[in-house]
């Protein structure tokens, strides 16, 4: 009887360890902005969109931004197709000149630094829903980062960007997104050209030193004109008759 009892205890212990392990590894609920392992060998964060007739945003997943490992931010985009219901709703929103919104969590766009502190909240951008429809879901999404690689801004534009009232077929043109994704880091502003200005000043000074005649005064340059004008004034005043009438002598 001892052997079956020992066997039962060992079996019970094994089942307990397996169940406990499953519970621990399945209890991995993620908050907004938490990264997820992907089949691409990196991490991903959700790209969400919202388009509502009443203009009250209700975001749902459009796709995922896949962050690749490396010193420079490298991001790929995977996207879902629009369902028939979503295509109909998007056209309804476009008919009332509503908005199409996207949002992404504020994260660090470097897969190998995801253990660092993550920022809270979302970054949102929008375009007119009619532009999204008439572009046949062709858009350009730009992710803007700071010097540390943190995502600080997102923008979206459509190609083309105007609404002209063009009819669009649901099944053909509003099913698959045609998106161009770009990551834009900070750009250093041009500094003042102090060195160039000083160099030009030195060149001007040297040039004037080689040509001393340029440093002559106004009178030294134009003395003959001034003298001629003075002589003309003297001669003119001498030739002019005196003012007043003449007198007769008897």
Automatic annotation (TrEMBL):
It holds the Pfam family ECM10. Its main location: endoplasmic reticulum. It comes from the Eukaryota. The chain crosses the membrane at residues 6-26, 222-240. One of its GO terms (cellular component) is EMC complex. Coiled coil: none annotated. Keywords: Endoplasmic reticulum, Membrane, Signal, Transmembrane, Transmembrane helix. It is a single-pass type I membrane protein. The keyword Cytoplasm does not apply. It is found in: Endoplasmic reticulum membrane. The keyword Transferase does not apply. Belongs to the EMC10 family. Component of the ER membrane protein complex (EMC). PANTHER family: CHROMATIN COMPLEXES SUBUNIT BAP18-RELATED, ER MEMBRANE PROTEIN COMPLEX SUBUNIT 10. This is ER membrane protein complex subunit 10. The gene is emc10.
């Amino acid at each position: 009887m001892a052997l079956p009892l020992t066997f039962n205890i060992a079996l019970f212990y094994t089942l307990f360890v397996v169940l406990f392990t499953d519970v621990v590894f399945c209890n991995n609920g993620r908050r907004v902005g938490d990264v997820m392992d992907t089949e691409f060998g990196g991490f991903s964060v959700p790209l969400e969109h919202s388009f509502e007739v009443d203009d009250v945003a209700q975001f749902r997943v459009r796709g995922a931004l896949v962050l690749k490992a490396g010193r420079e931010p490298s991001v790929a985009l995977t996207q879902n197709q629009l369902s028939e219901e979503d295509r109909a709703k998007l056209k309804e929103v476009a008919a009332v000149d509503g908005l199409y919104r996207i949002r992404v969590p504020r994260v660090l766009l470097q897969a190998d630094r995801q253990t660092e502190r993550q920022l809270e909240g979302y970054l949102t951008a929008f375009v007119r829903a009619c532009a999204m429809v008439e572009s046949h879901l062709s858009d350009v999404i730009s992710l803007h980062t700071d010097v540390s690689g943190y995502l600080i801004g997102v923008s979206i534009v459509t190609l083309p960007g105007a609404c002209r009232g063009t009819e669009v077929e649901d099944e053909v043109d509003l099913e698959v997104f045609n998106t161009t994704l770009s990551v834009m880091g900070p750009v250093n502003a041009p500094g003042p050209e102090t060195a160039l200005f000083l160099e030009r000043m030195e060149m001007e000074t040297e040039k004037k030193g080689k040509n001393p005649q340029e440093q002559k005064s106004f009178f030294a340059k134009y003395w003959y004109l001034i003298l001629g004008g003075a002589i003309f004034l003297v001669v003119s005043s001498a030739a002019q008759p005196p003012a007043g009438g003449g007198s007769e002598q008897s």
